[in-house]
Specification:
Layout (H helix, E strand, L loop, with lengths): L18 H7 L2 E4 L6 E2 L2 E2 L3 H10 L3 E6 L6 H10 L9 E3 H11 L7 E5 L2 H9 L3 E4 L22 E6 L7 H13 L4 E4 L5 E2 L7 E2 L1 H12 L4 E2 L6 H9 L7 E5 L2 H11 L2 E5 L6 H5 L9 E3 L14
Parallel strand pairs: 1-4, 1-13, 4-5, 6-7, 6-8, 8-9, 9-12, 13-14, 14-15
Antiparallel strand pairs: 2-3, 10-11
Helix pairs in contact: 4-5, 6-7
Amino acid sequence: MTNSAKGSANFRVPVLSNAEDLINSVDTFIFDCDGVIWKGETLIDGVPETLDMLRSRGKSLVFMTNNSTKSRKQYRKKFEALGLTVQEEEIFPSSFAAAAYLKSIDFPQEKKVYVIGGEGILQELELCGIKGIGGPEDRDKTIQFGPGFFIEHDKDVGAVVVGFDQFINFYKIQYGTLCIRENPGCLFIATNCDAVGHFTDAQEWAGGGSMVGAIKGSTQKEPLVLGKPSTFMMDHVSKKFETDKSKICMVGDRLDTDILFGINSGCKTLLVLSGVTTLSMLQSPENDIQPDFYTEKVSNLLTQNDTDV
């Protein structure tokens, strides 16, 4: 069944019926994190055993998240807290993607990056030798409208990076807007445009896309998006692990980010129903993003699943 099967009277949801065949067909598995490996601070059942099995069979594992609030070092600590042993070089958050992109274009050393987002972005920028300002430091800054009130902004800011920011405020929106509007050549970069996030296991929360939307609205400009479904991180992973993209399987819980990311990159795609996407959403006639396979959760890779829809 092709990914363009929408509307076919004979369309059947592509359930994962032979995990063994999928495992044998790829060298690398890329896992989204929120909704796939964990929900909030809770590990999803069967994840440790699944990862151990794949490693024992010589598969490379990559963990890729659009959540930019943490750096690779901070995410490694979260994996450890959940009982998982994962190396920093296996972790690709969108905070790292932003820094890696700026490094790849030789972002001028004399320029700065204004961050609307978390400490993770600032840490990754610093590791790339790029000066970041803003972020959590600006969480308590306020606007007092009155005659002649004026915000000074740094004319050396050459890029504004916007990610999820639970402390977003009007000051940050105005500062980022001024940099993009008034600093010649200033880049507008989004770590991701996710509509929702699983920051706790209790409910869905407004995602990084809401912060990006605020800056889009005030600047009337479109950002360069580096998180999924942009293929920037896939190109980086393919090169780093020296793996052909056709030998990679993207495992995720979102159709419009994870699965579209895999499709755009020419990878195999496996949707899990342990996060955002439900079976009814997948089967909806309004959905035109079809994975190669779907299953309930990643632990179904441990045994062959003979059920169908």
